[in-house]
Amino acid sequence: MVDAFGAMNAIGLVAFALAGSLKGADADLDLFGIAVLGMLTALGGGILRDTLVGRVPVALRTTGDVAIALAGVALALVLARLLGSRLRTHAVVQLPDAVGLAAFAATGALVGVRAALSPFGVVVLATLTGVGGGSIADLLLGRVPSVLHEDFYATPAVIGGVAFWLTVRAGVASGRAALGCAVVVLGLRLLALRYDWRLPTI
Amino acid sequence: MVDAFGAMNAIGLVAFALAGSLKGADADLDLFGIAVLGMLTALGGGILRDTLVGRVPVALRTTGDVAIALAGVALALVLARLLGSRLRTHAVVQLPDAVGLAAFAATGALVGVRAALSPFGVVVLATLTGVGGGSIADLLLGRVPSVLHEDFYATPAVIGGVAFWLTVRAGVASGRAALGCAVVVLGLRLLALRYDWRLPTI
Amino acid sequence: MVDAFGAMNAIGLVAFALAGSLKGADADLDLFGIAVLGMLTALGGGILRDTLVGRVPVALRTTGDVAIALAGVALALVLARLLGSRLRTHAVVQLPDAVGLAAFAATGALVGVRAALSPFGVVVLATLTGVGGGSIADLLLGRVPSVLHEDFYATPAVIGGVAFWLTVRAGVASGRAALGCAVVVLGLRLLALRYDWRLPTI
């Protein structure tokens, strides 16, 4: 189970770093800015998560995630030259991105339950870990975070967080519940992409 | 005294959640975005406050404040349908909002003094708890936080923080000083609304 | 060595507070907004640094840095009246600003190594301490942080952080390595200003 998680997490880090770097290249940032955007998109959600529960961020203490995210940035530099930045909305980015959202939401929910947060806190942490990095990147570019006004993107993470909490509440071990959470998030996100789901405005 | 505080805090949470949600609806966010803006406006100041003094945010650990803020979001959805979003600058929002500013500034000052911050730190925490949530919401919408360029809004919180610190310094118990702080903030804010006070630019 | 550091830190605080306040005046903020921008530019990098490693920010616990930054804000109010805001790109601001970048990057690297961060974490903390305050100020004004798309500004801090880590790794005491880091950052930044260095975009 750890392996499935680790693989999903790695896929997500590469996909998030790739998407963030391409976003930076689109916005005419210089190389430093592109790398910052890629790394922040990949690592920012986890950094927010850890800061909120009072841990020094894993991304600043260990090298594994950082190295994987850097690989995503490097990949973006190559792909952007070869293919242009059109690929941001291509399935080759969106599918791994959905995997990353699922893995990150699951780790956020796990960290939240271990920090003895309230149900609301667990759901917030799951969602923030999933969408926080991309939202910080949007903010740095002076944009309204895309999760606030388009797409069915954060909602799968919210529902996954709720599902996680209900499962743990029902007595299931939190590691197993986290895997369930990831499956729920991934399934909902893929359905949303396939059928172009959106939330209503008022 | 606890009761007066609790009531002011609850009024403030509802008012802030209401104002934030309406701001989100004005900006054409989807339902998720509206709820995020409402919750962040109500809870964001306290989350910043707790993170800065190294506590896991109360809003993620307990359910009381969250439930009250959610009620504010729900109220906003109903009112926005009935009345349109004009009510944001209406007294029915601005008066409870002033009560919330006062209650939040007072809790910020209290937390600051208990964390043994410097006088400057206490004033910063009082102000940030009062205006931080709304400022985060403004930032998410790509706007300059309104407290930076208009109105006499943050200034009452700053003055309340200074008054709190002087009172504690003079030997008054911090709970009683916090109530005094709230009265000062509320009074100044109401006067500012009544007489349209503004700070000069240079 | 402590004295050299202290002096560089003080010069940096004044220069950053001055630059931030002038930026605020340019953007037509009111007096409160101008003071917030100045203080945040001077103190924001250190606040981010401390929050990430789980310390209550020094700027909220002690009064020394705060008083120096306030002096920078006051200086800005005087200078802006006398000279207009053209001086932001003048050598009288840019040289002390380079000194501040160097001092702040060095303290960030030191704090990172003491918090047992990874090499990546140390470099991030050095960079963030140097450029974080100005970036927060840019964000509050709704601008893309200037370090992301122009100038060779963050890069000296990154290189200084790497140099620091390599020096400590080679067995040099961290205090001495921090001084070396500051010299590297300052030298690179002055060269960048003199020869108008820029990073490529892709």
Automatic annotation (TrEMBL), chains A, B, C:
<feature type="transmembrane region" description="Helical">
    <location>
        <begin position="29"/>
        <end position="47"/>
    </location>
</feature>
<feature type="transmembrane region" description="Helical">
    <location>
        <begin position="152"/>
        <end position="168"/>
    </location>
</feature>
<feature type="transmembrane region" description="Helical">
    <location>
        <begin position="119"/>
        <end position="140"/>
    </location>
</feature>
<keyword id="KW-1003">Cell membrane</keyword>
<feature type="transmembrane region" description="Helical">
    <location>
        <begin position="95"/>
        <end position="113"/>
    </location>
</feature>
<feature type="domain" description="Glycine transporter">
    <location>
        <begin position="8"/>
        <end position="80"/>
    </location>
</feature>
<dbReference type="InterPro" id="IPR005115">
    <property type="entry name" value="Gly_transporter"/>
</dbReference>
<feature type="domain" description="Glycine transporter">
    <location>
        <begin position="96"/>
        <end position="167"/>
    </location>
</feature>
<feature type="transmembrane region" description="Helical">
    <location>
        <begin position="6"/>
        <end position="22"/>
    </location>
</feature>
<keyword id="KW-0812">Transmembrane</keyword>
<feature type="transmembrane region" description="Helical">
    <location>
        <begin position="67"/>
        <end position="83"/>
    </location>
</feature>
<keyword id="KW-1133">Transmembrane helix</keyword>
<dbReference type="Pfam" id="PF03458">
    <property type="entry name" value="Gly_transporter"/>
</dbReference>
<dbReference type="GO" id="GO:0005886">
    <property type="term" value="C:plasma membrane"/>
</dbReference>
<protein>
    <recommendedName>
        <fullName>Glycine transporter domain-containing protein</fullName>
    </recommendedName>
</protein>
<feature type="transmembrane region" description="Helical">
    <location>
        <begin position="174"/>
        <end position="192"/>
    </location>
</feature>
<keyword id="KW-0472">Membrane</keyword>
